Write the structure tokens for this entry.
Amino acid sequence: MRLVPCPDCGPREPGEFVCLGDSGGHPVGEDGLAEALYGRANAKGPVEELWWHKFGCRRWLKLRRNSATNEFVP
Ligand SMILES: [Zn+2]
């Protein structure tokens, strides 16, 4: 499981976050997190997503993730 790089908290478990993927604009809750991380077959390469650190600093993060490798990229 990839850790989510929070600028306040450092690398944290994805389960602490709520991810809102921007492709299609459909909100993804905790239940859909695995699907958000692994299920997006339609976009290979960097995708921009909003992550809410619900169980941490409660900040919104705008992160870029390579959907082909699941690595977060600067
Ligand atoms: Zn945080």
